[in-house]
Design a protein that fits this description.
heterodimer; A: alpha+beta; Ubiquitin-like (UB roll); 2 helices; 3 strands; 18% helix; 23% strand; flat; B: mainly alpha; 67% helix; globular
């Protein structure tokens, strides 16, 4: 893999509206937290996409190992009873 | 001089600062040191061009002779531009771009904060919008100045050279001519004299933090309020006005 020569890598999370979850927007390069915040702002929120930003050094993110996918994710695929689809919704209950 | 004439000139000067620095920064599009900084600088450039549009439109409306902000931006001769000499200085190396931005952004932050109180409602409304943008430009320039000044030997040397090179264009920022004085008495313009001490204070704090030496005030360049410019403006205009000069009234 080619070495990345452009400063450290950071992950950017944007909250579009107060109360909503922060969603991963992408990554940026920066040498410190101030630069990371400014670069994230300039790259991911120029068109009103967000009202709040988190930046996290990529090296501090732990990812699951693709080799473990069978163990981690397959068991949830074949058990329909894990989904609450066997209930009848009462009339009048909205927003469910 | 009438209030109308003075206001036209005042809006024109402020608009020209934004137009010319916006153009200078746009020259860096695709030439930034890294992708992220490239976007940051062009983003600042777009803020400036938006500000130029608002101010030159106000100038055009004030003049009220059928000219639009585009006519004003693209159809004047060099000696009818009134931007400060500082903003037409070349981008140079990255340290020069940052030094120029630091000196002008700290000034603009102090200036537009004051202009918010202007009795002219249009200028006051524009100033309220600009202050928010400029606060960010200033922070960006301050952070880079400290990073480069307090960085490696090479970046320190380059940042100091850049500050020294730009310093002689800073005196002009605080000159009050008859237009400024007239509009200041009318409650429209900002008094630039008291701004100087605040500006020096802030700049010195940043430079000290960046382990840089604040230059002594020596000979200061001047002339822009009379339309007298350094050799750089002609080159900017020849590029900026090319389309309008070669194909007048061209449409997309």
């Amino acid at each position: 893999m080619a070495t990345d020569t452009q400063l450290d890598l950071w992950e950017v999370f944007i909250q579009s509206k107060s109360g909503l979850p922060y969603i991963h927007a992408g990554s940026i390069h920066a040498s410190d937290v101030k630069m990371a915040m400014q670069n994230a702002r300039d790259i991911y929120t120029r068109r009103g996409e967000g009202t709040s930003i988190w930046v996290v050094p990529s090296k501090h993110i732990s990812a699951s190992n693709p080799d473990d996918n069978d163990m981690l994710f397959d068991p949830s695929n074949d058990k329909v009873y894990r989904h609450p689809t066997f209930y009848v919704m009462p009339e009048g209950a909205k927003n469910i | 001089m009438t209030t109308k004439e003075a206001t036209y000139t005042y809006a024109l000067r402020l608009g020209d600062d934004a137009l010319i620095l916006g153009h200078r920064l746009s020259e860096l599009c695709s030439r930034g040191p890294i992708l992220e900084e490239d976007l940051a600088l062009t983003n600042i450039s777009l803020d400036m061009i938006g500000r130029a549009q608002a101010l030159l439109k106000y100038a055009a409306d004030t003049e009220n002779n059928g000219n639009t902000e585009d006519d004003i931006a693209y159809r004047r001769a060099e000696n009818h531009y009134y931007n400060h000499l500082l903003v037409e200085q070349p981008n140079g190396d990255f340290a020069h771009t940052i030094a120029r931005q630091l000196l002008i952004s700290v000034f603009e932050y102090l200036f537009y904060t004051e202009l918010e109180k202007s009795r002219d409602e249009n200028l006051s409304a524009i100033a309220k919008k600009v202050t928010k943008e400029v606060k960010y430009h200033m922070q960006h320039a301050i952070d880079w100045t400290i990073r480069l000044g307090d960085g490696t030997n090479e970046s320190h040397k380059r940042m100091q050279t850049a500050i020294n090179d730009m310093w002689m264009y800073s005196g002009e920022l605080f000159e009050m001519d008859e237009v400024d004085q007239y509009l200041f008495r009318e409650g429209v313009a900002v008094d630039l004299i008291p701004l100087k001490a605040h500006w020096q204070n802030r700049i010195q704090t940043v430079l000290t933090k960046a382990t840089l030496v604040t230059p002594e005030d020596g000979y200061m360049q001047t002339g822009s309020k009379k339309g007298v410019h350094s050799e750089n403006l002609g080159h900017i205009l020849s590029e900026m006005q090319y389309l309008q000069r070669s194909y007048p009234d061209a449409k997309w």
